[in-house]
Amino acid sequence: MEIKSFIQAVGSSAPSPGGGAVSAVVGAMGAALGQMASAVTRDRLKEEAPERLQEAERAMDRYGQQLLQLGEEDERVSGRLFSAYKVKARTEEEKKERHAHIQAALKEATEVPIRIMQIAQEALEKMVVISQLAKPSILSDVQVGSLHLMGALKGAYENINVNSPLLKDSKQAAQYEKRAQNLKEKATDCLDRIESNIQKRA
């Protein structure tokens, strides 16, 4: 979906795409800025370009593609969840079936944001490297990209906070919440290091 069409779809009365898909797309934009900063710096340095910079460029391209795919997946999963909630159940058997479908969809709707958080956190790790090596003139792009990645991660985190408490499997829900908190803490540390690097080099 083109960006204009995506924005129109988000702004419509349809239940999806929503915050999860938007978070993933925002993260993909952040990764693209990291990729651009790496590419521009590599072109300037040519043969002297550090291998870490080249690897970061490739990684950011990969992360961006993964986040876009997760955005599409979040939209599909959200659609299944909304459909499951709409099903009318009259008999006990129908109620059990509806409950099972809702729980399965909720699990998916929690796992996708976890994966968005994971990719965004890994991308922020690479942004630490990029913030050390990128041309000073594009450090603002590195910062904007990092903030986008952090925004994606926080958006996914909020989706997990909404969905995980609805899971009947409290042990699974606790695992999701613990994983999400751990990723958020790691990402916050990365962002602090990125901002420190940028301030030192500005």
Automatic annotation (TrEMBL):
<dbReference type="InterPro" id="IPR036178">
    <property type="entry name" value="Formintransfe-cycloase-like_sf"/>
</dbReference>
<dbReference type="Pfam" id="PF04961">
    <property type="entry name" value="FTCD_C"/>
</dbReference>
<feature type="coiled-coil region">
    <location>
        <begin position="166"/>
        <end position="193"/>
    </location>
</feature>
<protein>
    <recommendedName>
        <fullName>Cyclodeaminase/cyclohydrolase domain-containing protein</fullName>
    </recommendedName>
</protein>
<feature type="coiled-coil region">
    <location>
        <begin position="46"/>
        <end position="73"/>
    </location>
</feature>
<keyword id="KW-0175">Coiled coil</keyword>
<dbReference type="GO" id="GO:0003824">
    <property type="term" value="F:catalytic activity"/>
</dbReference>
<feature type="domain" description="Cyclodeaminase/cyclohydrolase">
    <location>
        <begin position="3"/>
        <end position="181"/>
    </location>
</feature>
<dbReference type="InterPro" id="IPR007044">
    <property type="entry name" value="Cyclodeamin/CycHdrlase"/>
</dbReference>
